Amino acid sequence: MSVTSYTIQNVVASASLFVDIPLEKVATKLANTEYNPEQFPGLVLRLTSLKITALVFSSGKIVVTGVKSEEGVPSAVKSIQKELAKADIKCTKKPEMRVENMVASGDIGLKLNLTDLAFNLPTAEYEPEQFPGLVYKVPGWHITFLLFSTGKIVCTGAKNEGEIKKSVKDLRKTLLELKKK
User: Fold this and answer.
1) Which of 5, 37, 100, 130 has its CA 20 to 30 A from that of 21?
2) Which residue has the higher pLDDT, 3 or 154?
3) Quick one: 155 exposed, middle or buried, by C-beta within 10 A (0-12, 13-18, 19+)?
4) Could you give the 3-state DSSP secondary structure of residue 43?
5) What would the mean pLDDT of 155-181 be, rounded to a whole number?
6) Residues in Cβ contact with 62 at an 8 Å cutoff, skipping those fewer than 6 apart
């Protein structure tokens, strides 16, 4: 029997830096930014060396994407603070950080009949002419899976790796039970 494996692909986190940020000033001082207030109220800050992107708001709130683990969030936020310091933005208070979403991809180790699953999983949506995967919203959770016939999966909505691990394990158990029917 094949063992389920997954890899965290992206962590989205929010943080409060507890400082007002003059976005126009930051945009003029830092080359790695995009700021178009008519289109979006935040500034986009890219740290290509770390492969992370931050949305920076004048309130001092930021949203960071591209982090590969929960543990990487504090260092990503610190890197953003260092970058902002180059534009004379001093963050004196310890930032408050929270993981908002984690995305993982993997393999459930089973070939899947998505048409059968669409009828047997009550919260599943499957429209093969629109998208080749089945969308499965885990009942009672904030987690959604994309399931593919090859057994490949994408898990989104988790707030920590423990939730990913548990939901993937529960998914496999559910799928094995359905295969027995």
Assistant:
1) 100
2) 154
3) buried
4) strand
5) 92
6) 14, 15, 16, 17, 54, 55, 56, 77, 80
Longest C-alpha distance within the chain, in Å?
A: 64
* Dihedral pair phi/psi, residue 154, rounded to 5°: -130, 130
Confidence label for 1 from pLDDT (cuts 50, 70 and 90):
very low
Walk me through the domains of the chain, giving residue ranges and CATH numbers. Answer: 13-98 (3.30.310.10), 108-180 (3.30.310.10)
| CA angle (66, 53, 90) in 5-degree steps | 125
How does residue 3 score in pLDDT terms, banded at 50, 70 and 90?
Answer: low
Which residues, in sequence order, are CB contacts of 179 under 8 Å at separation 6+?
Answer: 110
Phi, psi of 31 (to 5 degrees): -75, -25
Question: Could you give the CA distance from residue 24 to residue 56 in angstroms, rounded to a whole number?
Answer: 11
Residue 153 has pLDDT above 70, yes or no: yes
How far apart, in Å, are the Cα atoms of 17 and each of 61, 142, 159? Answer: 6, 27, 21
Mean pLDDT, residues 137-157 taken together? 96
